[in-house]
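Changelog note: in this version the structure field was regenerated for every chain. One regenerated record is shown below for reference.
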Amino acid sequence: MKKNILSKVASCVLAGALTLSLAACGGSSDNGESGSSGSGDAAGSLTLTNVSYDPTRELYQAYNELFKEHYKEETGNDVEIVQSHGGSGSQARSVVEGADADVVTLALAHDITLIEQAGLIDEGWIDEFDLDSSPYTSTIVFLVRAGNEKGISDWDDLIKDGVEIINPDPKSSGGACWNFLAAWEYASRLYDGDEEKIKEFERNLYNNVTVMDSGARGATTTFVENGQGDVLIAWENEAINTLAEYPGEYEIVTPSVSILAQPSVAIVDENAEKDGVTDLAKEYLEYLYSDEAQKLIGENGYRPSNEEILNSFSDTFDLNVEMCTINDFGGWDEAYEKFFDDGAIFDEIYGN
């Protein structure tokens, strides 16, 4: 109960802070720029606001620069981009509560559907861009410290006594929902679909979670910078970037079964129209599928949706990992109702 209250408070604080920051001189981007949303400033530049989830900070810092160059070449106009990051579920709620997002680039389709249901995004958004509006994908892996002292190689190692897990909270983090479903799929195969045994497996796993942060980046900070835990259940891109930043200090363990995680993108139609940036918002998201952007996506640890470019990163990604998909759970509406709604299976096994 205390965790749920804190999550709701954090969500409200985030929404208020983001709304205020975007109202004051247009807020600021990751590049330290500022401007007003809508038709632009006196110099004629447009401002676009992208509300995203935790681990995409570095990706969009790089992509925004690439897009600004592209947009200048194509139109002769400047564009500034305001960026916001947090747990995907919390970010979705902040937009519903008034954060002035022109586009959202969130961890899972369900979070965008919540914004659609609030009347801010047009129906059918998932078909507006290619591949279910998912210009990149990822999967779920384990990050362990060098030497892998606890000998972690698969999901069943996470339920052993004495293993301390760092994992974000599915009630506020989209990445955490993917984590839960990947573990469920492993246990389902292990126990031949026996739901009571699967629930017990998940219960034992979450009993070993010592810190449950509100977002994936917070969980990475807890594991890497604060030195807590034996294993981090992580987005693949977070694990890859950690290895690059701390060479020789960590190892990636790819489990025998994982999940194809599909972060989704959408125009927040009502806000973009109000701000006069609908065409700009469409171009911003469409350009994510360009060869230049797809290569940048791979360089930042995400799996490009372009198969040819993805295969060129075969030395970065394990392209042979066996992955289930959200369709194996009936799609996000069914999965969320069964697992993550208040009173659903996660609450049951975690004692909420």
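Spot check on this record: The chain has a mean pLDDT of 90. The CA atoms of residues 153 and 288 lie 34 Å apart.
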